[in-house]
C-alpha cells in the first residue's frame, strides 16, 4: 500500500475526535511527508533536532511538528520557536532548558513528560518522585505548558506485558488528572502506542499515537 493509502486507512480507523495520529517521518525524505500531507495529514514526528529543523524549513508552514526523541538541552533553542509539542521531556534539567528558550522566544512551549514505564532498562524518563518534583517547580516555569504524559512500552512480543505497561501509565495519568495541578500543567494528552502496539495502547486509553513504519514502511537501520 502507498503512504497515501496508509494515511487514509488510519484516518478511518482512528476516530480523530478521540485519537490524534502523529506520523513519525524520521529518516524518511520530504517527498514521503508531502505524500501524507497531500492526503490531508498535518501532524508529523521526528526524533532528531537537525532533521526536524531541516524538514520544517522545506515543508509547508501549517505542519505541526512533534519532537518525539531524546532532546539535548543545547539543542532546544533550534526548535523552541515553532515546535508544536515536545513528547520527550525526560528530566527536570531539560524542562528548565525548554523554559529558558521559551522565554527567549517569548513563546510557551507545549510539552509532555516522558514517563519510564518499560520493565526493560532505559536511560530516559521520569519516575513518580520526579513528577512530584516537576509539579513543585512548574509555578516558576512560565514558558512551558505540560499537556500530559508520554510513554513507550517494552519492545517485546509479549502483549500482556505491553498492555500492563500501558495500563500503568493510564493509571498514573488519571491519578494526576484528579489531583491538584499548577496552572501550566494539565492532563489532556496521553501519548502512547507505535506501529506495533497502537491498538493495545488505544484500548488502554491512549489519545495520541506515534506511528512510523506502518505508514512510511520500514526504516533502514543506521
Ligand atoms: C520511531 C519512533 C516511533 C515510531 O515507531 P514505529 O514502530 O515505526 O511506528 C514512535 N515513538 C518514538 C519515540 C520513536 O522514536
Mean of the pLDDT scores? 96
- Poorly predicted runs of 5 or more residues: none
Largest sheet: spatial strand order = 7-6-5-4-3-2-1-8
Question: Structural class from helices and strands?
Answer: alpha/beta
Helix coverage percent: 25-40%
- Measure the end-to-end span: 24 Å
Largest sheet: 8 strands, parallel
Count every helix, treating DSSP H or I runs of 4 or more residues as helices.
8
Write down the overall geometry. Answer: globular
State the total count of DSSP E strands. Answer: 8
Structure summary:
37% of the residues lie in helices and 20% in strands. It has 8 helices and 8 strands, in the order αβαβαββαβαβαβαβα. It has an 8-stranded parallel beta sheet.
Give a quick set of tags describing it.
37% helix, 222 residues, 8 helices, single chain, globular, alpha/beta, 8-stranded parallel beta sheet
Your description of this structure?
- This protein is α/β, with parallel strands linked by helices and 222 residues long.
- It has eight helices and eight strands; from the N terminus they run H-E-H-E-H-E-E-H-E-H-E-H-E-H-E-H.
- An eight-stranded parallel sheet has the order 7-6-5-4-3-2-1-8.
- It starts with a helix and ends in a 6-residue tail after the last helix.
- Pyridoxal-5'-phosphate binds next to strand 8 and helix 8.
